[in-house]
Amino acid sequence: MKKYILIILTIIINILTITKLNALAGYTTGTYVKVRSEASVNGAELAEIANRNTVLNLISDELYNVGDTNCSVGWYKINYNDKEGYICGKYVSIGELPSIDDGPGFNEETYEARINGVNIYVRKSASSSSQILDTLLPGTNLKIVGNKVSGTGCTEGYYKVNYYKNQTGYVCSKFVVTKGEITSKDESYEQTLKSLGFPDSYIPYLVKLHQEHPTWTFKPILTNLYWSEVLDGFKGKTALLNYKIEAYLESLNDNIDGAGWYPAKSSVVAFYLDPRNFLTEKFVFMFESLRYDYTSTSKDALNMENEITKKYLSTMSSVLSSSFLNTDEYKKYYVEAGFNFDINPVHLVTRSKGEGAANENYVAVSGNNPDPYCNSVTGECFNINNFYNFYNIGAYKQNGLSNPVKNGLLYACGPACGYGTSYGRPWDTREKAIKGGAEFISNRYIGKGQFTRYLQRYNVNPFGQNALYTNAYQTNVIAACSDSADAYTSYKEMNLLEEPYLFEIPVFLNMPDVVSLPNIASTVNTIESITINGKKITSFDKDILEFTVYVNVNDKEYDIAAVLTDNTSKIEGTGKISFEEQSKTQELKVTAENGDVRIYKMTMVKVNDTTTVEEIISNLSVKVTGNIMHGISPGTLGSTLVTSINKFSPGTTVVLNEIDGNAASISGILKTGQTIKLTTPSGETKSFVVSVIGDTSGDGEVTILDLLRVQKHLLGSSKLTDYNLVAGDTNADGEVTILDLLRIQKYILKTINL
Asked: What topology is assigned to 113-179 in CATH?
């Protein structure tokens, strides 16, 4: 008997050992996966595995009940919590759990302030009439420069801001939010939020919103999705921007869905995916539950006098404002549609407006399309006159048809245009289009778990009926922001912000501390100024890449320093150098933040006197504009000018020529039209045309002849040009006017000096 018992024990041990040896590692690829007692949905539920990527102990790689109606791939047998059970194979991956990598893919740069609005202008000065420098996306990082300043067109005042690195401009402060303004602490409410499942990084924003709006309710959607897999889920999906900002775009191809729409980078998608970036009063409405509020009415019958219905009607009036839709008839259509299909009618109105339907002349709602629409591929033509599509359903490029809006009208046309009859098609009245489109939205989105503006753009709800990362209502990456801002504005105008709104906000696992829009790197790679041994090179021009400078032959070494136009760029070639030869070409390589390179070639020539022409001119009591030397009083001797030049630079030679090119006497008076050529000891040469104040005739004197020439100029009979025009501008205000005529007259009468 003992022998048999020993044999049986040995067999059991061997079975257990074999089972243990054959066990395989695996992990869940879905959320809330059922573990059942047998390989069928009819088996008893033993457990529910909530989290994706939960490690499993598979007994083997054998699949049971393959072809099952509810799990066609078959069922894996697993050990779970010391029990054997079965799990559908489509939610299982065999092998070791891959490491979770959340980066890089997005920008983790923190921020001081951000744009809190849509299509916000940056202006050159603090005025709504000032030049528009840029249009900024929601959430663009800003640095506020100085205190708020008053200005026209923005009663709240303007912030001077740095944006896109070193660019500066003014933004109306009501569209700017600082991080401190949207975060707060309240330990009691923080605990409430934590108990609901909100991570720490969400809480300061929600606390602030709760303090300002205690009637609002925040509910997390615990997706149990890792942030990295969410980003991966949206890779390859169409995501468009109508902003031509290269740093935000995959390419400048705008043929994907209409002119002006470009494919956005995944890092931009990541920013608009992160719910924390939009937990502000204006943008939190992207998480508003869009289901109909039945709390004060019955689902069986619509009462237009009901309290909630009246609020819906009032809010719609605000949204529609001066639109042709702002009538009792149209608003009733929206309310009935919302009631019947469990959709907030305000959302339907906002959606219509966002698609352009508030404009009666918009092609999708006008009913005025007299020309047949012909397929350029098949040649087939359809009459789409008197059809309507208030939500632009089906309005995208397809089947060789390039016009998205008209494609939507083909959808509205229904069977006559080769489409179906679902959702009450054909939509040959506006009522049908409003109600049929609402049914479509309910069937495709609201009723299937995409019940917020955010989820309709970014479907990350694992409890919904549509596959994750699919079924986006719009391809515009900022669509949820735009729709949210419209809703907020309407609610605010109607004093409805204190209503008990419910906000359902997705939460992800392993999120980074912050996600920002991509940096827009500077392309500037110029030098603003150069000094050698502390002396500024006055003749330097940042746009001239090859130039010569003169250095003192007695210096043992030359310390080159440069000031860059943009401090985000880098320079090579500065510092101390020495050379034995008479001259040396030094390369100064400037690299912009974005990597663009500019190379300056500076030839350094050794001389005894390094004075430049520009330095000489700056020490004279004259002015130079271009090649015209002006501001010279009538009667000034050439010798006086030469003396001043040689006093500053003894080695500089001066040559004076008449207007005809012949040599002029240095001892005579200077005349308009003469040329003066300076040559420095270092060999630098520059020539200037002389312009004497008031001497428009070129004789060196100011007489009645000059008075007449200015008079003819003013009358338009004989215009002054070039250096003569400069001479006629006696008060140096940039133009020749009656005042200059009077000044010449007074000079002739000897009552003033020029």
From this structure: SH3 type barrels. (2.30.30)
